[in-house]
């Protein structure tokens, strides 16, 4: 890995954010499809009709997106919506076979049936979005991590998008991006430590801003920062330690 071009993680974040946002806006102006919609936050919840329904739909999507891509999740959510069961009480009223069939497009459907049922039971027992909003963020995270099948990334997806708490979602895209920008420790650092580091160094880390950050990183990773990077016209190539090294043959 070539030498980093940033003095600190804070320096990196301050430089990267406006360039990813500009790239996103340019894509929209050219009429190209974008991962992140123009209205924030980024996480899609197309069937919700109120805040409670939206929060629950996001939580369902966060469970279903484990180990699959969002296109498959959309198919599963569409099935739940078409069956008129995209609500906690209605999901819990289904038998496992019916629920498994509905979420089959998301893959690992038998495992996800158990996980979705566990999350839904916990959500309903806690009083839904209204009941959960009364709890502090750290308590909510511990509660989420205590639910069968909910790991750190899924918990933070729900915290950020469903409950609007200011947390960094750490996924493969996030680790890859900052690793390549000259911070190799981000590839292996423990989830909580990396999330805390990013939160500490983010300017004005509100929930909408962190949701936008996550969406921008996903969009950038799919366009440029892939496993095999596409560095041509990358908006970050100027100060990307990894990309600059490739150009120099390092």
Describe the SSE topology:
Elements: H1 9-29, H2 51-64, H3 70-82, H4 88-92, H5 96-103, H6 109-125, H7 128-133, H8 137-145, H9 152-162, H10 172-180, H11 191-201, H12 207-223, H13 241-247
Q: Please report which band the strand proportion falls in: under 5%, 5-15%, 15-25%, 25-35%, 35-45% or over 45%.
A: under 5%
> What class do helices, strands and sheet pairing give?
mainly alpha
Distance between the termini: 8 Å
CATH C-level class of the largest domain is Mainly Alpha
Give the helix tally.
13
Biggest sheet details: none
Q: What is the mean predicted local confidence, pLDDT? A: 91
Query: What is the radius of gyration?
Result: 19 Å
Give the name of the CATH superfamily of the largest domain. Hypothetical protein, domain 2
Description:
By secondary structure, the protein is mainly alpha-helical. It folds into 2 domains: 9-38 and 168-247, Helix-hairpin-Helix base-excision DNA repair enzymes (C-terminal) (Endonuclease Iii, domain 2, Orthogonal Bundle), CATH 1.10.1670.10; 51-162, Endonuclease III, domain 1. It is 59% helix and 0% strand. The chain contains 13 helices and no strands. It has helices at 9-29, 51-64, 70-82, 88-92, 96-103, 109-125, 128-133, 137-145, 152-162, 172-180, 191-201, 207-223, 241-247. The N and C termini lie close together (8 Å). 33% of the residues are buried. The model has no long low-confidence stretch (mean pLDDT 91).
């Amino acid at each position: 890995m070539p030498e980093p071009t940033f003095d600190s993680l804070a320096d990196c974040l301050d430089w990267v954010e406006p360039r990813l946002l500009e790239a996103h806006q340019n894509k929209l102006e050219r009429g190209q499809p974008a991962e992140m919609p123009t209205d924030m936050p980024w996480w899609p919840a197309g069937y919700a009709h109120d805040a409670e329904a939206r929060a629950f739909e996001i939580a369902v999507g966060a469970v279903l997106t484990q180990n699959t891509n969002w296109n498959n999740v959309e198919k599963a959510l569409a099935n739940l919506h078409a069956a008129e069961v995209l609500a906690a009480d209605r999901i819990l009223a289904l038998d496992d076979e019916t629920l498994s069939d509905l979420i089959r497009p998301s893959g690992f459907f038998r495992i996800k049936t158990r996980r979705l049922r566990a999350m839904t039971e916990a959500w309903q027992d806690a009083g839904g979005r209204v009941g959960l909003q009364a709890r502090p963020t750290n308590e909510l995270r511990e509660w989420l991590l205590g639910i069968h099948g909910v790991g750190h990334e899924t918990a933070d997806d729900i915290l950020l998008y469903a409950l609007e708490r200011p947390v960094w979602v750490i996924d493969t895209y996030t680790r890859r991006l900052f690793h390549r920008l000259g911070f190799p420790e981000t590839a292996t650092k423990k989830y909580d430590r990396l999330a805390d580091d990013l939160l500490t160094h983010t300017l004005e880390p509100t929930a909408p801003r962190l949701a936008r950050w996550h969406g921008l990183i996903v969009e950038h990773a799919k366009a440029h920062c892939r496993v095999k990077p596409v560095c041509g016209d990358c908006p970050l190539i100027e100060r990307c330690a990894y990309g600059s090294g490739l150009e120099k043959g390092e």
